[in-house]
Specification:
The structure is a homodimer of 598-residue chains.
Chain A (H helix, E strand, L loop, with lengths): L2 E2 L18 H8 L3 E5 L2 E4 L1 H20 L3 E2 L5 E3 L1 H6 L1 H4 L5 E4 L5 E4 L4 H11 L8 E10 L14 E11 L2 H21 L5 E4 L10 E7 L5 E6 L4 E3 L20 E4 L6 H11 L24 E9 L5 E9 L6 H8 L3 E4 L2 H6 L11 E2 L2 E2 L10 E4 L8 E8 L2 E7 L28 E16 L1 H6 L2 E3 L5 E3 L1 E8 H11 L1 E2 L2 E2 L10 E5 L4 H16 L4 E4 L6 H11 L3 E5 L7 E6 L5 E5 H9 L1
Parallel strand pairs in A: 1-30, 4-8, 16-20, 29-30, 29-31
Antiparallel strand pairs in A: 2-3, 5-7, 6-7, 8-9, 9-26, 10-11, 11-23, 12-13, 12-23, 14-22, 15-16, 15-17, 18-19, 21-22, 23-26, 24-25, 27-28, 31-32, 32-33
Helix pairs in contact in A: 1-11, 2-6, 2-11
Family (chains A, B): Belongs to the class-II aminoacyl-tRNA synthetase family. ProS type 1 subfamily.
Organism (chains A, B): Microbacterium alkaliflavum
EC number (chains A, B): 6.1.1.15
Chain lengths: 598, 598
């Protein structure tokens, strides 16, 4: 049935919405695709719903090709399964919790690993039932602290989440690959550029974890890639560990006065003013050729507090080269599921041995940082702090630092930790050259969960030998509403949206112009003809609306092919308008119909 | 793509689920369509999801035919709109409420009238934009006190809810009729018998309200219908008011001793034992020919408490003929939005003039019931208590009653109220004869909301004269998951489900039997051929599963047409099995394919 704009539920807006931070949000609201209902929560208008349905249809198609079956879980779920997995607590403020009238605890599910696991446990019991891949397309809820950027980070959003179930690691690899391949096809069909990056594999102990990132400036994720083909999320980047340096020939640690140098920069300036230039080999590989003191010669000791799941709070000190920062995302991943907080004044008061601005691992009377030290505080080192590297760092005395403090000789840590920021030029861990940094938006994630949920929730099957084995799982997510927003973010110009044909809300927009009944009659019959040949047609049949307004609306809405029926109608001439290229061509009706239905 | 049972996510169960109260629940769980996730909350398995999608497709199709456009509102909504309409409070315990991390109030929407109203207000402003009909198919939430009967009364369920917007009553009537017609077509396509009954039009002040009930024994709703075509929900039934009776010739009220007669039956027995038989005309029309005292001669005064929205509690007394009960549903509707509670011992202690078991409207010293009486308690009468009817009722003295107490002469009420139960044989209000009672399940509701929400939320448009007029709305709901359950409830036998073709999860189930590769090869090629011709095929390709198990599964699943490929395969013979009739017919492959694709 031809959709007539005179009746269709649509109101385009000339003004940008006041709260729109990004192009997709601005255009989707202005062109009548979505409306805001609450922070991070949107109402879908007919145009938006049609695009969303087309994206979902592509996903369903490729899930079927990958042998996955569709199910649908409730959004409102009881606490128990999430209690068993520990996530009722670990989600913290990030989920919506509620009670029913009897006081029982419920949540609005942010993801459904527990439910998928329990469903399969409920129904399956033998290796013969596996492999199995099942998925849902479902509305999910996360109580984001800062919902923003329209659909890009909402509190109610639509996801496709798939899970695979295998009883061998080889089976799991095959299931993973099938979903990974399906994701590639989905993004190709959506015309959406993607980079597959290695991602952190989190707490679940799974083996592989990759994110599909769309490289885009408004992206929330930073990733690194090398010309040689390496790509990873910054959280997953691993430092190339330099070779250890022999201790031979290194001088002893020297404490020196360093008044008013609580920051790395003041310390470097002071050192260059008051110390001899650094001897070659006196510091780590990044500073080997330095002729003066630099931030890279210094060891920065950052005090953080970890809030563990059981509620306990632990101080931890991170030693990183002074030219690096502790990266928020890397530190979050490194210590998960504990939450990381800055240390407070109270923490320093409780630990008088920590002299703010002058903290270091060593003192003349013994170790100051580390579980076996005077403070007893866990001390973790950046992997670059290899044995034999010499550092300028705090002497644990107000206004004093120490230099030629050698790792592995004068101090050691309780272990290493990957939390320093990654910089352009850092080596790719696979030896494929230096990395560059880019911004991306996560559009998909394929992830070997391994046996965490199956173990926790007791999902086992009998294998060929009648032995109970724990099932291994994969998790595969695509953000449907996020993809829609990214497509809008990418496909637009200063006039409005320009949808790719695969997801456009209509195949053709027919615009009747003028006051001549001939034009409207022709537009009407052409619309019917196009619909009859299987195209989905939006017909702008509005009387008393100027061609200018109609064209502006068509450009804003972004149907890729527009057919104008106006002045030439009496002569059987119409105009075909390619929204993306802007090309307009006058041709006979039959020719236009043939082109559109080709 | 042919769906192969060897890989499909399905496990049929031989045992009924322990909590299944009704056939639909039992079979949908056993045949692998749904699983329980929490009380009244279900997970949809692939088979169930396919049937649900088919029902939704029929609804979408008929909504499009009725000129309605699809939108989609969030399930998670802020409090404000519901606060404005008063429903945040009036829903009581019936909805799920929650806070976000900032402490803001949210709810899981049970219906979306407010949001639809605000959306149209947000976008439309002129009579030229109307009429408009929009709808959604969406998961809704109600915190039912007693979720039961599987999908028939759940806490998370899918509904299609449509709303129409007009600026004239005539327009509203046309929009209403379009939806009503669409509902008839939907139920016809689903093969679902329905009765359209007049329904209570509630608090909104709308003009028309009709329910589509499916007549079914497990139905929660009682409705009445006459042979002459009247049909109504019991809540909407209106009593035919008898003519008033002249007071002339009626005796004076007589107080009489009636020890130990706190109930109607004891009072009737006592009266027959100790009083003269009732004189003709001494009571109302229902008792005109009685030769002895009956319950219909007595006036029962029932004390109830109303809990108003503002939290106040009010006692009210209802006077009904003693042979009728106060009907729970009718009383609920009559006093909505106030909640109705039984009176407590405390209420009687607070009102010592009310002598329990001997309450009446009259005493020798003046009126006892009514706003202007000694108690001041509001007193409402059944419409049958017309002027001139004479009653036996309490004398407000322990162990004493009064007879020949005449309505309109000796007592009056503060008004009339429709709360007495309806009985088979009661007259239809349209004069179409006596009614009979039947049970039904609500499957749809079309409802003229009128201007309540538009007024409350400020939805006005400019009319042809540039004058702001309030929009009038209609509300049209269909329970999608409920319909699925009713279809399962109706379409089954002792072997399992038998789906109508319009909603069956697959068009054909192909079953390969035996161990002969020829049979499996033929089944494979026939399945592919049927799929290629547009049918959705479930192919039972399981090796090492006996024909008996395969047939039992096919019968349980309920695909209406089954094709068995087994022993005759080598000769090109297959067996076509009609699940509903049970007919099985052996015929050549080509003939079977021709029949299935016809």
């Amino acid at each position: 049935m031809v959709t007539r704009l005179s009746h269709f539920f649509l109101r385009t807006l000339r003004e940008d919405p006041a709260d729109a931070e990004v192009t997709s949000h601005r255009l989707l609201v202005r062109a009548g695709y979505i409306r805001r209902a609450a922070p991070g929560i949107f109402t879908w208008l007919p145009l938006g719903l049609k695009v969303k349905a087309k994206i979902e249809a592509i996903i369903r198609d490729e899930m079927a090709n990958a042998g996955a079956y569709e199910v649908h879980f409730p959004a409102l779920l009881p606490r128990e399964p999430y209690e068993q997995s520990g996530r009722w607590t670990s989600y913290g403020d990030g989920i919506f919790r509620l009670h029913d009238r009897k006081g029982a605890d419920y949540l609005l599910a942010p993801t459904h690993e527990e439910m998928f696991t329990l469903l399969v446990k409920d129904l399956y019991s033998s290796y013969k039932d596996l492999p199995l891949s099942i998925y849902q397309i479902q509305d999910k809820y996360r109580d984001e602290a800062r919902p923003r950027a329209g659909l890009l980070r909402g509190r109610e959003f639509t996801m496709k989440d798939a899970y695979s179930f295998d009883y061998t690691d080889e089976g799991q690899d095959a299931s993973y690959q099938a979903q990974r391949d399906a994701y590639e096809r989905i993004f190709q069909r959506l015309g959406l550029e993607y980079v597959i990056v290695a991602a952190d594999n989190g707490l679940m102990g799974g083996a592989r974890s990759e994110e599909f990132l769309h490289p885009i400036a408004v992206g929330e994720d930073t990733f690194v890639r090398s010309a040689g083909g390496y790509a990873a999320n910054v959280e997953a980047y691993t430092t190339t560990i330099p070779d250890a340096i022999p201790f031979d020939g290194l001088g002893e640690p020297v404490i020196f006065d360093s008044p008013n140098t609580p920051t790395i920069q003041t310390l470097v300036d002071h050192s260059n003013a008051h110390l001899d230039a650094p001897a070659p080999g006196v510091a780590g590989p990044d500073t080997a050729d330095a002729t003066e003191w630099t931030a890279a010669h210094t060891l920065k000791n950052v005090v953080l507090a970890l809030r563990h799941l059981d509620g306990t709070r632990e101080l931890v000190i991170i030693g990183v080269p002074g030219d690096r920062e502790v990266d928020d995302k890397r530190v979050e991943v490194a210590f998960a599921p504990a939450a990381v907080e800055p240390a407070t004044e109270q923490d320093f008061e409780n630990n008088p041995l920590l002299v703010k601005g002058y903290i270091g691992p060593w003192s003349e009377t013994g170790a100051v940082l580390g579980e076996e030290s005077a403070t007893g505080i866990r001390f973790l080192l950046d992997p670059r702090v290899v044995d034999g590297t010499a550092w300028v760092t705090g002497a644990n005395i107000d206004q004093k630092h120490v230099h030629t403090l050698v790792a592995g000789r004068d101090f050691t840590g309780d272990g290493f930790v990957e939390v320093a920021n990654v910089r352009a030029g850092d080596p790719a861990p696979d030896g494929s050259g230096p990395v560059e940094l880019a911004r991306g938006m996560e559009i998909g994630h394929v992830f070997q969960l391994g046996r965490f949920f199956a173990e926790t929730l007791g999902l086992k099957v009998l294998d060929e030998n009648g032995k109970l084995v724990t099932v291994t799982m994969g998790s595969y997510g695509i953000g449907v509403t996020r993809i829609l927003a990214i497509l809008a973010e990418l496909n637009n110009d200063d006039k409005g949206l320009v949808w790719p044909e695969s997801v456009a809300p209509f195949d053709v927009q027919v615009v009747a112009t003028g006051r001549d009944a001939v034009a409207f009659d022709l537009a009407e019959s052409v619309s019917a003809q196009l619909e009859a040949s299987g195209l989905d047609v939006l017909y702008d049949d509005r009387a008393k609306v100027s061609p200018g307004v109609k064209f502006a609306d068509a450009e804003l809405i972004g149907v890729p092919r527009i057919l104008i029926v106006g002045r030439g109608a009496a002569d059987g001439q119409v105009e075909l308008w390619d929204r993306r290229s802007g090309d307009r061509e006058v041709l006979p009706v039959a020719g236009a119909v043939a082109r559109l239905t080709a």
